[in-house]
Amino acid sequence: MQYEGKVYRPWPEANSILIQTTIGCSINTCTFCSMFDDKRFRIRDIDDIFADIDELRRIFPHVESIFLIDGNVMTARTDFLLKVLDRVKQVFPESKKISMYSGLNDFRRKTVSELKEIKDAGLDLAYCGLESGDPVVLERIKKRMTREHAIEGMAMAKEAGIETLLSFIFGLGGKERSREHIEGTVSLLNILQPEQIAPMALAVQPGTELEREVHSGEFILPTPMQVLEEEKYLLENLNFPTYYWGDHGNNIATMRGQLPQCQPDFLEHINLHIAKNPVAKENVIKTFSW
Questions:
Q1: CB-side exposure of 290: number of CA atoms within 13 Å?
Q2: N or C of the chain: less Cβ packing under 10 Å?
Q3: pTM over 0.90
């Protein structure tokens, strides 16, 4: 395999093989992220990708789940993605799921017809970072995406039949904007209605702009209680069916399951942590870098 630089995959893809299709992230300005600070964005040579696919076939006799990395693979040209997906399907006919990193803005940069082609070629799930639904937070973290962009991109994905998993970050509004952050995020999620969601508690990554903001006092870290209250608000106010990946390693109250069926149990779990978890009484959230 010819992996370049640091390699990441979402925790729900722990059992997937990874095929590096792009290098880095085409945005790479988000203040909280250092995932791809060691490389400049580019599309890999397709012959190198094919060589990796063939190598993976020699290594793994049976593969059910495949994940395309790096940052936002959907940025690549449609004809390029179709070739990669076709090769994956040919080499791994037994596979049951092909997923990739994308961005809601990446959907907007293609036509619905192109997105349908990508879906028909084998894409089952796209992971998109929403991060927040609060316009102020989105501006501060330099996401280069607005609420309106997110709504437009999701509408295109839904029209094309592409299932999406949206990730977002509890505590990203900091101590002073916790309420606005979670209210904006939940209101946007209720509009977007992704098939899956994956919340995670804020973790300040070493070397990021956010870390510098924390050290300078420009960003005040939230308390564990605020993070728990954000998750409680989310579970109280989501109004659409979705699968909840609430078991990231940094989350205080880990849980996973289908909503709305699991919502009552999840709320009981959150309230228990709010009432009895000693961590909830600490002044600053403590999490681990990715």
A1: 20
A2: N
A3: yes
pLDDT for the residue numbered 289 = 85
Number of domains in the chain: 1
Position 154 scores a pLDDT of 98
Cis peptide preceding 70, ω within 30 of 0: yes
- Angle 147-160/178-192 helices, nearest 10 degrees? 30
Give alpha helix (H) positions in 69-146. Answer: 78-91, 104-108, 112-120, 135-140
Q: Are 197 and 129 in contact (CB under 8 A)?
A: no
With a cut of 70, list the residues of the chain below it in pLDDT: none
Beta bridge partners of residue 162, listed in sequence order: none
Instruction: Report yes or no: 165 and 197 within 8 Å, Cβ to Cβ.
Output: yes
Q: Which domain holds residue 241?
A: 11-281
CATH number at residue 221: 3.20.20.70
Residues 4-63 have pLDDT tens digits of 998 999 999 999 999 999 999 999 999 999 999 989 999 999 999 999 999 999 999 999
Distance CA 90, CA 1 (A): 19
